[in-house]
Write a sequence for this structure.
């Protein structure tokens, strides 16, 4: 029985042989080691569920496949011509070099140059913007000076205007006062004259009255 | 005693039901020498994709970049940044090398994950990512080696070889060994990652065809991108290392 197993194991790597198929080749009287038990389980699974069990069985086998068989696996891979050096190596190397030259011509150098130039242009523009900011400051200062001068001018004009207006007003006031005083003086003079007239009239009346009194008191002879 | 070979057999069985063909090549004879045709075909497609998209996007650059140009400008800045970080101020002449390295590996890896190569049936072998083949990765790694030797020799002349006895002559064998381990690790890292990635996805698809492989596929895309970045970064780092002045 063991020789049968060994025979099945000697098959080269290309022969199609699923794990389930290899398990089903083994009859029931296998020795009770771990893998054989597993294969028995797989076999019974397959009998119960048909084709669907194949995937499950493969999973079980893969899971239980431990760390030990690495050297043998390496032997299998050697057979599979993994390390098969030939003209492909220099071919790929020259392809790579050609690709490098081509990419350098159409990608790395032109786009790199373009990006560098754009970078420089942006930097220059940024520098310009910084310069104009100082210009703007200067202009702002100028504007402030202009505004200050204008304010001073305006306030001077305002002061002068105020002074002029005040002077004018005072002149008018003085004139008005003078006129009032003149009128007052005139009125006072009138009053005085009237008083004198009245006194004069009163004097004559008094004289007449005293004459009458005298006539009455002293009976006419 | 027959556990191990049987589990191997199981594994090869898994390969077969999932249609994985590891290490199977379509051979072309060129002047008595053989090439892996599937690698060359896919690499041509990758190169065509790269050149085509770049030409379309950057043919007529605008001051205010539109979609494609914007993307490629971003890419170029990314590559310049990477080169500058690793090489230093004199990174300029190395941008095409690092950039092509990154783009070629990245598009190769993603083409393996995204393009439906399997639709095209080959007589033998199958189409996959070009980085899936050791020839490609070794070619790229050897080019990197040559690049850093060239960088060091043009920068410092023969005094470049003085670095082998820095900081002390005792380290001479290790320093010489480094020149071999660098391309070896570069090529095997990329090759192993991409191959393993495709295998994992294919095997998982064969086990559970729906939904379950999707996270692994995304992980694959992520790994592919990371591998391209690692390769380009390390290449730039090696170049920078051989150009920097030693004390």
């Amino acid at each position: 029985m063991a020789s049968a197993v060994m025979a099945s194991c000697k098959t080269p790597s290309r022969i199609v042989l699923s794990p389930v198929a290899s398990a089903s080749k083994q009859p029931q009287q296998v020795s009770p080691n771990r893998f054989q038990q597993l294969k028995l389980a797989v076999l019974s699974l397959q009998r119960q569920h048909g084709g669907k069990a194949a995937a499950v069985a493969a999973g079980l086998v893969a899971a239980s496949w431990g760390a030990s068989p690495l050297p043998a696996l390496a032997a299998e891979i050697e057979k599979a011509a993994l390390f098969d050096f030939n003209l492909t190596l220099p071919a790929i190397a020259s392809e790579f070099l050609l690709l490098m030259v081509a990419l350098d011509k159409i990608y790395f150098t032109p786009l790199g140059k373009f990006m560098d130039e754009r970078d420089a242009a942006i930097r220059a523009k940024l520098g310009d913007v910084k310069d104009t900011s100082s210009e703007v400051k200067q202009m702002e200062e100028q504007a402030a000076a202009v505004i200050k001068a204008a304010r001073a001018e305006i306030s001077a004009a305002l002061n002068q205007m105020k002074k002029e207006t005040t002077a004018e007003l005072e002149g008018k006031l003085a004139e008005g006062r003078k006129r009032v005083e003149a009128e007052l003086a005139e009125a006072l003079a009138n009053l005085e004259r009237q008083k004198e007239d009245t006194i004069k009239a009163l004097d004559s009346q008094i004289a007449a009255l005293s004459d009458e009194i005298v006539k009455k008191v002293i009976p006419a002879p | 005693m027959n556990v191990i070979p049987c589990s191997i057999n199981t594994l090869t069985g898994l390969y077969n039901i999932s249609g994985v063909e590891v290490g199977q090549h379509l051979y072309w004879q060129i002047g008595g020498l053989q090439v892996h045709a599937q690698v060359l075909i896919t690499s041509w497609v990758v190169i065509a994709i790269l050149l085509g998209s770049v030409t379309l996007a950057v043919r007529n650059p605008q001051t205010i970049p539109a979609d494609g140009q914007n993307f490629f400008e971003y890419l170029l800045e990314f590559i310049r940044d990477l080169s500058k970080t690793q090489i230093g101020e004199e990174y300029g002449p190395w941008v095409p090398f690092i950039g092509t390295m990154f783009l070629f590996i990245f598009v190769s890896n993603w083409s393996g994950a995204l393009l439906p190569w399997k639709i095209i049936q080959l007589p033998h072998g199958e189409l996959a990512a070009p980085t899936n083949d050791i020839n490609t990765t070794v070619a790229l790694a050897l080019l990197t080696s040559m690049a850093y030797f060239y960088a060091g020799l043009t920068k410092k002349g023969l005094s470049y070889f003085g670095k082998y006895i820095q900081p002390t002559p005792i380290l001479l064998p290790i320093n010489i060994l480094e020149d071999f381990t660098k391309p070896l690790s570069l090529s095997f890292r990329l090759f192993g990652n991409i191959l393993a990635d495709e295998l994992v996805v294919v095997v998982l698809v064969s086990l559970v065809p729906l939904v379950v492989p999707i996270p692994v596929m995304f992980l694959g895309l992520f790994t592919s991108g990371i591998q391209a970045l690692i390769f380009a970064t390390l290449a730039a780092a090696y170049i920078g290392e051989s150009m920097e002045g030693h004390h």
Q: What stands out?
A: Residues 1-32, 50-68 of chain A have pLDDT under 50 and may be disordered. The CA atoms of residues 164 and 191 of chain A lie 40 Å apart. Helices of chain A lie at 2-9, 19-25, 34-49, 53-64, 70-79, 88-217. The longest helix of chain A spans residues 88-217.
